[in-house]
Amino acid sequence: MVDTGENNNMKTTFIFNLICVFSLFCSQVGSTNHDEQVKEFFKSGHTNNWAVLVDASRFWFNYRHHANVLSLYRSVKRLGIPDSQIILMVADDMACNPRNPRPATVFNNQNQHINVYGDDVEVDYRGYEVTVENFIRVLTGRLPESTPRSKRLLSDERSNILVYMTGHGGDGFLKFQDAEEVSNVELADAFEQMWQKQRYHELFFMIDTCQAESMFQKFYSPNILAVASSRVGEDSLSHHVDPALGVYVIDRYTYYALEFLENVKRGSKKTMAQFFKVCPKHLCISTVSTRTDLFPRDVSHTLLTDFFGSVRNVELITETSSLSKINTSSSTNSAGKEETTCSKDSCKDTDKKPEKFSYPDQIPRVLI
Amino acid sequence: MGLLTNEHSRNRLIKLLLAHDTKLCCLSYIAGVVWFLALAYQPFNAGTYISENALLPGLVESELPPMFTSAFQIKDEIHTEVHRDKKLTPQAWIYKKFTETGLETYTHNFSLIYPFRSVKSQLVTGENVYSILRGRRAASTEALVLSIPLRPLMNVNKERPATHGGIALALALAKEFKRKPYWSKDIIFLFTDFDEIGTLAWLDAYHQTESEYIKANDLPARSGPIQAAVNLELPAEDVSYYNLLLEGLNGQLPNLDLVNLVVRLCRREHSQVAIHHSMEKRRHQFSDSKGESWSDFKLSLSTMLRMMWYQASGAPSGNHGMFHKFHIEALTVQGVVKKKGSHDDIITSARIVEGVFRSLNNLLERFHQSFFFYLLPSTNRYVSIGMYMPAFEAEEVLDKVKEHLQEAAKDDEFEEDEADVNNPANQSVLSIVPIVLVSLLLAWMAHQGPELLMRIMPRFRIHTEDMVIYSMLAIFTAALMYPKMMIRKSSNPFLVIDWRLLKSVALIGQTLALACVALLNISQAFFLAAFMVPVTCSVKPSKSRILRWIQMLALVMVSLLVLMYFVGLASAWPQASTLDLLFKGYANTKHLIFLGLMDAYLFNAWSEMIGTAVIFPLWLLFWAVPWVDPSL
To answer: Which InterPro entries match (chain B) (predicted)?
Structure first.
């Protein structure tokens, strides 16, 4: 039983969907070669994108890690992930370091063209807030109640998440600040917990540190794609020094990854397979290593923008589905009280049917 | 473990050792000395490297103006200023100039109480000037020091060269540094009067500590804890190379990272840099020659020995030595002028100092990453404590083996004449107690002698230096005769001196003393051990009068005063005639002993105390050994 108002609503959305899909088909009909790409386009199955960007090291001589993470932040933001869906963790404040000859700026290139510490940087966790505990809590969603929404990773089972980490690492760990480190086992378990709590659909893990490969070796949860700047036993090196600042400004792997990302636009069809080749050994000096066995899709057909951008996909529904109204207030209320606000029909419905699980906090009411 | 627990095999081992003890001792001594000296050979030591990440040496480019004309102008101004009166130092001028630059500048007065009463005016006053450049974006919680000694023109000599280039450089750099936004630490420009004395007075005032003989006024302004200091001795002329002085008070050295930093930045400006004026051939810096040739070894050995020579004295080789007392890493950069060869002008020096300070500015914590105990065979090679300690121990192990053998030999004897009731062990211990006590008493006298003499000195009209050495000689000659009295008195058969026990006690004492000194000042311990150990180990009573005289002569040769005389001779080495050498050597010895004493009074240097209160009584114990009648 569906009341008429809701039926109308359904109809309009359905028609809208049809128009969208039709127009999409129209634009692509001319070139039949793209059919396959269109298929791939729909395969991703995610509806939203998130990014967790972590610079785990402090001190002035680690300026480059700061620049790494801010450059990547700038790129994903340009490609469409909004600040509300980026968790940026930066362990030190280079812009305000008294040693910085260019106060209030951070540059990732000695030409000093782009100030990556621009006007619109939203750092979620800074300084001593960047701890292993906070990092794991953000991933697994076990934050204290008082934590504001901007500091939470509010992802769901249809979210694609980019996790980027940089800092000083060793075989099996990444150092946080100067006091603690996250091990590869802890990280793998955190991702598994995320999977079990349906906090991601696909996850892309990217790490630029010494012996970076060791960090993804212990992963065992599905749908994870990983890339690391160096193999176990290798050092990841910095790219160049800015003699005006007197510090190394960026790491090699991140430098070449950014060079690639700079040419990516929002609708780009560049794939992850291409992205994996951005830094061959003669440029990186270390060997870039990838892990694809947990990832079910073919990386050469996986779009870069599935992780780095925020492209909204439209899905075609072939059968008519009837949506029932979920009355959130009644489900949360105590059972003994009568609901006076609902109509007779709807009250009957909710009494008969078993309660559905819902995300009252996350999905805006308008959609329901 | 079987070796230790099995009585039978243990005895066998001891017997074996006893049979060959002399050979073993000689072997270990020679092996130790050769090993130690061989550490200067390049394949046996290691290349220096910077282990403090934060320093980032040479990454930043110089921000000084390429012509830097102000430095030359200031140099001319100071030239006219100091030639106005050759007796005075230009404190007032420096104060005026720094105030004009806009930096907070202060003067600091101190007075020195002369420890000896031989001169009429015991009070000498001096004046330091210092100026603090506050880091703009930092909280004044840390500071760096650039210190320049002020020397009146008439007092300038080869060892204490003029420093006017340094004054000009400091002033010019202060002007440049003031404009920069990137200082995370305050920079203190310090100009000290009377070299080390002024520096110590200022440091005492800065840290609110007090010295007995140097009275300093309180400072009107301070900054935070001082992280590092560079003492600059630049002449007004262009320099041919930079000489680094490292040795501080009591043989303390600055952290190796600071030395490496300065060396690397000098190299970056293509300047020559040396330790103790020992120049490496240029090809070493650029080609990867292994340095295995004989001439290379000779060069690095002489450099290392020169460093050890200075370190062994325990006296600071420059103003930087006073900073070590406060756990501040510091060294002196000396500009050396030579007529021949290429020259670096003041701009090069300015760039080096700027680079050093920008690297120090990057420091996040005190220097702690690299070595504090090391020897340098060249500017880019080092011998760390882990490498030289085994060699030193091998040289000294002789002592330990010998002392154990003495004990073992004694045990054997006891076993043999166990029936003899007249020779119980406790009696022999009692017999040496008076000797130990008397030598300690004599040592106390030697240590306190100068202090006691100071009270009666004004009555005699003798020069202070002479007074000190006469007093030392008096105590020494008195001490020479003490065994005669002791041994005569103990004619009682129950108090016969057991010379083996005496020697064992003396050897244990010597081993402990040298091992302790080695931890503080390896060079001092090395030279003491190299001279004393072979003689002290081989002394024993002898029936033959000639043998006894030879032993006594050898012991006198390694006594402290004679060793000091050798040092005096060595420092006076090239002289026209032998007689000249002997006289000059004596004069130098006199001066050295006096200086050692002054260092002990003014700076609390330990060398004098180690000599009189530790080494001298030990030597006295050995001295008694040949006097004992061997038939007993």
So the answer is: Gaa1
